[in-house]
Fold:
Amino acid sequence: MRRKILFNFIIILIISSSLTGYIAYSIIKSDHLNSKEEKYISSINLIKDSIIDDSSSFSNLNFFDKAQKYSNLTLSRVTFIGIDGIPIADSHNNSIIFDNLSFSLGINNAINNQSKVFYEYSKEMGGKYYYYADMLEFQDNESIIIRIGESVDNTDKLVEKLLTYLLFSILSSIVIAIIISFGTIENLVKPLKELSEASKFVAAGDFSHTIDINSDDEIGELTASFNSMILELNEYIKSINEVERMRKDFVSNVSHELKTPLTSILGFIETLRIEGIGNEIRIKALDIIETESLRLEEMIEKLLVLSKIESRDDNKDLVKVDISRVIKDVLEVLTPQIKEKNIEVSLDIGFLDATIKGNEFLLKSVMMNLIENSIKFNRDNGKVEISILEYDNSFGVVVKDNGIGIPSDKLDKIFERFYRVDNIRNITKGSGLGLAITKHIVMGLDGTIEVESSTKTGSVFKLEFPKA
Ligand code: ADP
Structure:
């Protein structure tokens, strides 16, 4: 990757530098030629005027003299050439008159009245020359070509020097740019390399590697996203482990809780086997077997409810449920228990339409647990007051009893699975799962549950659900 970027970068640099160099060189060169042309035109015009002034006829002229004279005057090589291309006189080299220059493009241009600066190798002078040629017509219809020449060696020194400077500056800027780009590319590639290394760890299932964020550009953003992905994965794995741990705990708790009543049942069956036990002991044993069996039954029932809750996708079948109707249904089911203990139940609904978003089965479970507890943990002739309250965005349900209450040091434990205060208080019924299930459901419906209790006045359970 680094090599690729560097290679492309150098190619771009070389192309752009060469282009800039070429354009600069062309501008300088054409400027140089333009200024030369101006100079040559004025020199040729000067020569023309001066020749016409001296003589209007071709035959009267001494071209050798003139060539010398104008050469000194214009500081350049002056050649007179016939229109047949044969040189007549030259200020610098007399041997030229034996040559024929009719092949020269510059001379042909002059004959065709298209004079411009041209550049040719001069055989006689043994070097490159800039030339400018123009035609002069005499009154006697004779014509000659006047050519001005200047050695390239002398005139191009400046351009050459400029070109050298240009090349030098282009080369040094390429070197500097490469050195700088090495650093820049390194900064660019390093975090990507780190990302790729860290991704390999993730692919191998190791989520402990995060990357330091050193920039606030796109790469920095990518690194930050990568880090937050790692954090989320860690959280996810943690929660999976936690759920797994809870499940294991739950299974071992369930086994333990089921085993206790069974052990007691088996023990009392053994007692019954003993021959000649008294009637009193027999009845007591049967009572205990019955209570423990009922407890086992209740526990299994609640465990079934729990598994039902956990296996359903609650959010999918949430509907509007009238909570007052649910309470009335529950009270009907509980009528035998209420009558048995002669409990005075009051229901204060206040208004008719108390609909919350929930699920009939789940809400019935909640109300059943709370109202059943308020009867179960009550004394004979006790009281249960149920009321529904309306708040701005929610409905409250309060279940209040004047029963045996919960000691304050046990209050924070009653929502735990299998926790029963009455273990010690000699009330045998109950699985210890009811309130755990209740809290689980209430939280799932975005509701809240609170408890206030004292062994003197009884317990108050307060629920709140958002309005439908
Ligand atoms: P259980 O199946 O034993 O009723 P719960 O989870 O419903 O289990 O309740 C846990 C414990 O909290 C109960 O064993 C009981 O000791 C106590 N408790 C619950 N509700 C009341 C109440 N209204 N009055 C007194 N104690 C209560």
User: Anything to note?
Assistant: The chain has a mean pLDDT of 86. DSSP finds twelve helices and twelve strands in the chain.
